[in-house]
């Protein structure tokens, strides 16, 4: 469905947080508050990556979705980030015929 296609963009969101991709690429898919958090994390990660001279690949390995209200989707995502397993919790809301990340928690 459309929700699944939008969630495929999670790799892009994670890549921004790792400083691999510029934040402007996810601006359309995030609220201003989420964008600020993602861009800040990405900036710090890019500085660390430049100091180390390496980047690691992130893979999404599991996504669970629920629809608590019309035009609202909550997702829990398990991903492998370098050698670590991480979790993301997201709340997406329908806005202007697309899904926008309205809340993000990284664990």
Quick synopsis:
This protein has 107 residues and is an alpha+beta fold. It is built from 3 helices and 4 strands, in the order αααββββ.
Walk me through this protein's architecture:
The protein is α+β, with helices and mostly antiparallel strands. It contains 3 helices and 4 strands, in the order αααββββ. The chain has helices at residues 2-7, 10-17, 32-52, and strands at 58-69, 72-81, 84-95, 98-106. Strands 1-2-3-4 form a 4-stranded antiparallel beta sheet. A hairpin with a 2-residue loop joins β1 and β2 (72-81). 21% of the residues are buried. The model has no long low-confidence stretch (mean pLDDT 84).
Write out key terms for the chains shown.
alpha+beta; four-stranded antiparallel β-sheet; 4 strands; 33% helix
Shape: globular
Low confidence ranges: none
Spatial strand arrangement across the major sheet: 1-2-3-4
Structural class: alpha+beta
Write the H/E string, N to C. HHHEEEE
The separation of the N and C termini measures 27 Å
Strand content: 35-45%
Helix content: 25-40%
**Cα-atom radius of gyration:** 14 Å
> How would you state the average pLDDT, rounded?
84
Number of helices: 3
Largest sheet: 4 strands, antiparallel
Number of strands: 4
Topology readout:
Layout: H1 2-7, H2 10-17, H3 32-52, E1 58-69, E2 72-81, E3 84-95, E4 98-106
Antiparallel strand pairs: 1-2, 2-3, 3-4
């Amino acid at each position: 469905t459309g929700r699944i296609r939008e969630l495929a963009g999670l790799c892009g969101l994670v890549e921004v947080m790792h400083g691999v991709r510029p934040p402007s690429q996810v601006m359309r898919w995030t609220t201003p508050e989420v964008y600020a958090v993602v861009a800040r994390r990405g900036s710090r990660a890019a500085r660390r990556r430049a100091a180390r001279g390496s980047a690691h690949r992130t893979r999404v390995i599991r996504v669970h979705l629920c629809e608590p209200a019309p035009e609202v989707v909550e997702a829990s995502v398990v991903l492998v980030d370098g050698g670590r397993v991480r979790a993301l919790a997201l709340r997406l809301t329908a806005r202007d015929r697309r899904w926008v990340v309205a809340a993000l928690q990284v664990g």
